[in-house]
Amino acid sequence: MKLGIVGSRGMVGQVLMERMLQENDLKHFETTFFSTSNAGGEHPFSKISNVDPKLKDGNDVNELKKMDVIITCQGGDYTKAVYSNLRSQGFKGYWIDAASTLRMESDSTIILDPVNLDVIKKALKDGKTDFIGGNCTVSLMLLALGGLFKAGQIEWMTSMTYQAASGGGARHMNELLNQMKFFTDRVMATETNLSNKILEVEKNITGLMSDSAFPKENFGFPLAANLLPWIDADLENGQSKEEWKAMAEGNKILQSTKAIPIDGTCVRVSSLRCHAQALTIKLKKNIPLDEIEMMLAEHNPWAKVVANNKSDSLRYLTPQYASGKLEVPVGRLRKMYMGDDYLNAFTVGDQLLWGAAEPLRRMLHILLENNT
Ligand code: NAP
User: Fold this and answer.
1) The Cα angle at residue 241 between residues 240 and 245, in degrees rounded to 5
2) Model-level pTM greater than 0.90?
């Protein structure tokens, strides 16, 4: 199969390539890398056999058309600019995409195979060719709670998120670091123990957020020493697009016959990598906690149930622990004051792995199996 990879230098692209190299995925393909900004340039994978050593132009439909499979992590604007044109010029191959642009199209299948392999296989059988990675927070939530969804035991749920800066891409994460530097360069230049004048320091930092030189070109607002309770577009019904995705995409991935209501508030926080979410789950009936833990742990090899105590929660339910891991820790599991059919949970996972790159590379293997 001829494989085209677009956007390998972005955050998702780098993680995708790291995983593909770890798993030696490229040996199955003749691979061409595409870039929208450096056609003809070098890429780091030129020494691997069956890899075209030069970058091709990501906007060149004639070159893209030669591929059997295209994986893109270039972004939604790229998908908008290239996809329809490519299809109308006769591209019949598989399109595997990390961007949200095509997710809700009727011909697209959202891929998260530990949860919906049957849906993916049916789509292939039906001749579908567009396979799109889900929203990172939604995919991580479905992996963490897969056992309860599979058992059909969730009546509704809320998800309150804590999403890392890197969810916005490489430039956003870089901006967060520059925001942190902006403060520390000014406030801690000469002394590091500021505790005797800490209220003055806080006032100073809050003031610096409005400084005209403060770096906020990407986020538009300070994220360091702050949080941002809105992610993605304003749907003008009081909901952000990120919040809308939970129910829309979640139910599409599950192919629910009756949509499960999922809603909440999505918040950007200043962690660098990994998205966390606090969940309130209304169960259809009172299920004992140990049974719930077993259902979650047994659903897939990546959901890691964390004992609900202080030390394990602080050790495992953090971006620090989850970063760079395929494991999706889920904990703080307890029944709530509202009743025995109300479950509290907290989960965190690497949004660049299961939330983005991993379902894409696994889709390649599903295609390979399908073609043999
Ligand atoms: P990104 O880091 O901004 O990279 C996207 C593309 O931007 C790169 O492939 C590169 O394309 C170009 N680019 C321009 N300046 C760059 C720079 N300084 N460093 C790196 N790349 C630069 O975006 P991303 O986070 O990887 O996201 C890609 C897609 O995946 C988006 O549609 C996003 O919504 C989706 N997604 C992201 C996440 C996440 O957590 N970040 C999770 C799930 C899905 P060229 O080489 O062609 O110039």
Assistant:
1) 120
2) yes
